[in-house]
Fold each of these.
Amino acid sequence: MNKLIVSISISLMIARLKQTLVAAIGVTFSITMFIALLSFMAGLNDLLDNLILNRTPHVRLYNEILPSKNQPVDIAKGTGSAYNFIRSIKPKNQPIEIRNSAAVIRALESDPRVLGVAPKTTVPVFYNVGMISLTGVVSGIDVDAETRLFTFSDYVVEGRPTDLKTVPNSIVLGIGAAEKMIAKIGDVVQVTNSTGQQFPLKVVGIFQSGIQDVDKVQSYASISTTQKLMGKSASYITDIQVKLHNLETAPKLAKEWSALFDVDAIDIQTANSQFETGSSVRTLISYAVGITLLIVAGFGIYNILNMMIYEKMDSIAILKATGFSGSDVNKVFIYIALSIGIFGGTLGLLCGLGGTYFISQIPFSTASLPTVKTYPVNYNPIFYVIGGVFSIVTTYLAGYFPSKKASKIDPVEIIRGK
Amino acid sequence: MTVKVLDSVDISVAKGEFVSVIGKSGCGKSTLLYILSTMDTDFEGTLRIDGNDMRNLKDKQLASVRNDKIGFVFQFHYLLNEFSVIRNVMLPGLKLGKLKESDLEQKAYEKLKILGIETEARKKPNQISGGQKQRVAIARALINDPLLIMGDEPTGNLDKMNGEIVFDIFQELAQVYNQSLLIVTHDIDFANRTHRTIEMEDGRVL
């Protein structure tokens, strides 16, 4: 029975092949654009997010230099008519190192919610270039953990990051700082710490983050080298960077650990809220554009089906007169709409995949993004699922009303109207 | 406001009877025909086909009654140009779904043979003449072996010669195949040669 309806649908489509193809191409075009646009946007989002977020710990433990929140005078309860005002409170001389850092790191590493832990020691220094001193920051890192968690090695554009471990008193300079010091790999640069002591350090790599201001001041060394720069013991750690399995849990865990280890903790959402906003707005815009394209294609199908029904009024009337029910006629046109949707949609998904691949091959190089050579794309299968489902839903809706109209045609009116 | 088009109409058609309906334009004969064919459901009274009451049947059930028990021939042929002649004849049979497609094709071919147009079976309707088209339409009406064939001026658009051919076919169907026919016509000659003529005026049977 249904075979008959399908064969009628096919015959009607073949009779209007050009229009049918135009409608299908409309769907193909919109699905192609939808897929390519979303893939490209998602790729860009990932890139921009990774630029900051991938290199940012999900939770960072550190000690903030702040005046004590509980002043002794607050303990004394006033008479009720008097208040304490203390101005110009100064922070007390409290070390910024994390107390008992080795135990804290061990505790974090055994936590099942934690992907990895990377300790860090940040030291403010001066780079000495002849008579001039440039301010800078040397971060002492565990190269292996930093590479594993924060893709550190991707940003070392010259030299080998692992040399930081093997070469004693070595440094990876930011590209901006290296240019100012005219330092190349193998050179020895002079670095002065805050107490005025000078250290010679061997350059084993050049680092480019993509953010120029960072590259002018930031350098990396091993943790032990920075501890030497500070004149501190091997347990001196100022930051513990934690990467989690689930990024969404960061704010909760930051609070938990802050209380547990008696340190300050900041989560990635608080530290970088603007990036998430940007990403979601960009995604929203691309979805809006993609869906608009599909709706426009849906109107095209609606028009063509309406015209087809108008042209085929006689055929519909005679089908009904010879025993086809309204729902049979309805099915004929729904099948036509769905065929257009499925054919155009499938082709669109394939073209979208091709278009996305094409975009991913376009050269795209910028000084601020050393690891990116072509336009970024994201082959997320969810885009294809949405595109496929939406193409069928829009074409079904576009076919629904014309089909309903066709099924309501009164054969007597058509036949007697002649 | 409702206008009474038909009033006190009480007719019946027996098996194998060839009945014609005549009357002036607007006297309600076509309306009567469309009511009898179940396509027009807006009436008061009783309609029985093969002893079954047609009132209160749903759209889908009426469609299947039309499919199974009634063959219709219109003034215009209403063939579907997308399908070949034989496919056009087969369509109501495919809808009925009682026969296999190959058997149905054989049956459609036989019906075309009765009407003398079996050689045109593979052509498209727009490749054959007007008289042939009307004969294809009759073959289509016959495909499900209906109880009754109804015609709304089936010779109205045809010249004298083709009109004669169609009339002869109807007469042959009635005499040889014991087919009941109910034909609305303007043609007095045509009506006079049928078994029985129902004359109508102002919505009444005279």
Amino acid sequence: MLTFLRVLKFALQDFWRNFWLTLVTVSVLVLALFSVNILITLKAVSDNIIDSVHDKVDINIMLVSEATEVDVNNFKTFVSNTSEVDTVSFLSKEMVLEQFKQKNIGNPDIQSAISELEDNPFNDTLVVKAGDPSDYDLILQKIQASEYSSLVDNNDFSDPQKIISFVQSVSDKVEKFGIFIAVLFSLIAFLIVFNTIRVTIYTHKEEIGVMRLVGATNWFIRMPFILESVLYAFVALLINIGLIYLFINILTPYLGTFLANYDFDLTAYFSDRFLLIFGLEFVLAVVLTILSSAFAIRRYLKV
Amino acid sequence: MIKLRQLTKLYKPNTYALHSVNLHIKDKEFVSIIGQSGTGKTTLIRMLTAEEKPTNGELIVGGWDISRIHRRDIPILRRQIGVIYQDFKLLPQKTIFENIAFALQVCGTSRSKIMKVVPQVLRIVGLESKISRYPWQLSGGEQQRVGIARSLIHHPKILLADEPTGNLDSINTREIIALLKKINELGTTVMLVTHDKEVVNLLKKRVITLDHGKVVSDQKVGKYML
């Protein structure tokens, strides 16, 4: 225990004495960790958007005006029994008109155009939700191939699918770029830690020489450098936690504007997964710094 | 205490620092190793402290064949062998007390023992009054005495002195040699590597002369003959 405390003391001394080296090393580690967190943030936001859009995707199958109640019921039963379909609900043409009015309540042109119409321009409609949004094409194909195809006036489901594809494509590109940045910063951090430990070994060559001379164990000579690299990772993690919460606080109002229709709390997202995210980041940072310092020690510290 | 059997150190491609050297240094002996630069004196010291491995032969210290020493045993060996050097190897930012205490700290000695032992060894070398000074505040002779005090901290059986008076004037040289003799009389085997003629002639002890990595002379009470 006494020996460990002394090793820790030497490591802390090195950490503060080489202040500028420490600052550069910790900064690069913070950048590497921060880029990982930006990646997590973007992934969380895009996943949330995609999930929300998935929930909102449905097909409105407008029926021909000649369809009888029996036809509608039979068609509804057919659609319900299709394996890819999750739910089917019926909207009368009055309900469809009401929904349309509500949707365009802020548009006076549409409101006045509707009020001038004597007849309801809409027909009865079936609203179909699929278990998996990618199955909509298949469902429509099955309907077209069925005996009920003549009951279908038109259908509309293209817009949400486009949004999903767009978000998914942006998310994939951002994720790839983010991984590239995180790997790049990790590599830079590896080299910086390597160089820092190398310089620290060089500045301590007299002390190391005396330690060897008087019979200090190899463990005792090497351990302060390993502990020093763990300290870099630890301090970088603490700064990174502060930075990411600051970043979320700055980002949240903009995100609120951008994602007006989506309910997503990034702070809660990180707080709920605090141990998982930051614990894993700490382990990764420690592995990176220990490996890097071990290489430097192996290369430059002869015991 | 120290036995060399056919000890050879070859630096590639073909430079022999030591070539088939046979020696036997007894317990509590005081031996001077002399020879011109590049004759293998320092290589011998470096092999005795396991900083270098012999190419061939055996190097036995206290019954322990250190030519085949395992890396993890090297610190144990070094605690049994005190070494002093021409350049003192003191840490300039530490006081005399801290310099010696450092040697104990890094070996896991308790604080209470450090507080007890450091003044003791400083008393042996006559520097107890300068315990709080820094190395640059001492003369060369005093700095070497600190080096000797540090080398004695683990009560070694052997003291290796590699040109310990190389940076000192004649008065300080005599003081250091007198101190080494005193340590030897207290029971420590001393191996002095030097090319200072005055020192060797003053000692009137065993002198081993090396030339081109070979022992060319071994006198019980020798003189400097190069």
